[in-house]
Fold these 2 entries.
Entry 1:
Amino acid sequence: MSDSVRTGTATHCPYCALQCGMTVDQELVVRPREFPTNRGGLCQKGWTSASLLASDRLTTPLLRGSDGTLQPASWDEALSFVAQRIREIQGESGPDSVAVFGGGGLTNEKAYLLGKFARVALKTSQIDYNGRFCMSAAAAAGNLAFGLDRGMPFPVTDVDTADAVLLAGSNVHETMPPFSQHLSGAAVIVVDPRRTPTAEAAALHLAPRPGTDLALALGMLHAAVVEGQVDAAYVRSRTTGFDAVWRIAAQWWPERAELVTGVAAADQRRAVRMLAEASSAYVLTARGTEQHSRGTDTVSGWINLALALGLPGVRGSGFGCLTGQGNGQGGREHGQKADQLPGYRKIDDPEARAHVAGVWGVSPAELPGPGRSAYRLLESLGTPSGARGLLVFGSNPVVSAPRAARVTDRLASLDLLVVADFVLSETALLADVVLPVTQWAEEDGTLTNLEGRVLLRQRAVPPPEGVLSDTDVLAGLAVRLGQPAERFPVAAEEIFEELRLASAGGKADYSGVTYARLRAGEALYWPVPSVDHPGTPRMFLDGFAFPDGLARFVAVDFAGPAEVVDSSFPLWATTGRVLQHYQSGAQTRRVPELMDAVPEVFVEVHPDVAARAGLDDGSLARVVSRRGSVVARVRFSPSIRLDTVFLPFHFPGAGRANLITNPALDPISEMPEFKVCAARLEVAS
Ligand code: SF4
């Protein structure tokens, strides 16, 4: 056996944005390797990830036959059928009658090509992706405050030396366990309604009522000002807008915030002192605080606190957002968002349109304008103003979208649903055409991890016979729709060469990143504006991304969740992840070790609350909201708030947590309110 077979190919985990370094060999054995984010650690998902390569994955295209079942077809039959139906639908109803839905797990090359395919081959404005459900509120708040969104604008390893870290809405012990080693030297403050393993290990746990994080951030900002902990020199020299923010925060004395959030005023003051007195401190947010109908305002509230304490853009301190999906960062930079072109350019910016159209060899006037954001796009499907056809790549909205029953209904009403995936996901089961595509270790491609570092994920094993890459699918369809073949390359490196040109001069400038540099092991954090540029591990040290270099305080006030509890729905339901599963579970539910550990949906509930509803530990509960209900196994949790229940969102069918979630959208980012809705518990038969 050769050394390379024995040691395997250096690659990265297929799941979350920590993108832990690992090797995979020909025997499908995974081994962790030294990489700064994981330092030889992997979580259970990473250790078992090679199971995906051997799982019940798809190896032949499927077409729905006249008897209503999915039948094997050749690639030519499947792609020709899809192209023909697209032509018919668009011929009758116009370019926007066919939509595209992408995913935050797609490589940079796929996300880029998908955006180009939609705008150039389909000429549709209707494209968005599931990352809208993941990072959009944080991204919007980062853009407002710093002029630019890179989740963590510093390497993860910078956190190693922190004295204090505030984690708002993050449960890293379960969602990305190897990250926890970067917190080992810090006093950690966790903001989470649940006493998660991360909260359990923290120096201080603040447990606000779901949906009240912004009131907590305002109370803490008030405490910082009143107790003289504001870094006045920093605020004066590096920011603007403090006075307007203080006019609001002045009303939020910690005792008032305590009434709204349930977090003791003394604990708010203690948390602020811990951050202010640390010589190195970080504030990091994640989905728990972001997935709200005021998600952007809530992140702005945390940024305001960090700015007042003088943390962002300072070496050894900072503010960041922990990206969730594997390519959640790169996936939002290269054009699969409704309002975006590659390089983090805005699609309604004439200069950006001219630049990208030039790279694509089309006229700027041919490019469509902005389309609908993810939930609006899904909700409009099959309606008179919405698309009649949808192409889905790397996403499973039947499980992952809010108000999932409504979304399923919309998907079922389509004249054409095409799903490219490597497993028969719940969304693929509804499709007219299913296209079997390659997965992580079977293909080359780049991803951008949670710290903005561009990584090369290398092919480690050949794909099974019959499987093509998503890029083959896009090129095959584009050619059948009349595009020149040379406009849609299929090799990852060739696509990346084009992406470099398209991103050049944009906010997320990858023009200096090459496969050769990545293969040589260079740590390249964007922007990398030329091939001799070393990359930008730490942003904002010399100024923020505004012409005056100043960060913006953004004046925000607390408004509360989009719906209220009442006698019919007296509890707050919140949703999240467990260690063993990832996103909609389409992948991890196929890994036996992970299913053995957590085989079904559960509802975490305080024993007293369960008793009032007539529920025992292990019994089946129906969790009912104003939109629907979920059947889940009761799991007693004496530490959860008495007004709160928790459900993981990885399970299908009647166990979909998203059957009850509220699609109320944040007005700035259009992030749905996944993290809080009014609910009640019933005994399920
Ligand atoms: Fe690392 Fe995330 Fe993969 Fe776990 S799921 S091994 S934390 S990249």
Note: Residues 1-5 have pLDDT under 50 and may be disordered.
Entry 2:
Amino acid sequence: MTSLLILNGPNLNLLGQRQPEIYGRTTLQDIENQCLALAVELSIDIEFRQSNSEGELIDIIHKSRNTHDGMILNAGAYTHTSVALMDAISSAEIPTIELHLSNIHAREDFRHTSYIARVAVGVICGFGAYGYQMAIKAILNHVDK
Ligand code: CA2
């Protein structure tokens, strides 16, 4: 059975509780529930995780090497700063989709830079919580090729 890791970075645990004008009212728990429902429909396994710590995110990516077939990563603000996360994805050799709720290209200049995009199969941004459903289908299409 195909197994996917959906990994969420710093502050995404606050979704639905603050700044709803940018990130919407859907909580991370709502998103996890939606992803798990889609996983049942598609007969796949999903591990859904969140961490505020760069080191913990890197440890989770290292462990994904032999346990998951693909990864969907919303690295939050680490997207724009973390060479270490980029290196972890390269070393794990796991096909990865970079995901963002907001359209990072329509926001501040510092959000236009992504270290993750350099090692990702593709990038999805701007579609809110629905982007997670899009990313699941896109990564499955990629790993099934
Ligand atoms: O749009 C996205 O998904 C982001 O990854 C979200 C990050 C941001 O730094 C990226 O540039 C784009 C921020 C996540 C913070 O989430 C919050 C949610 C509610 C309240 C405050 C922060």
Note: Residues 79 and 115 are 6 Å apart (CA to CA).
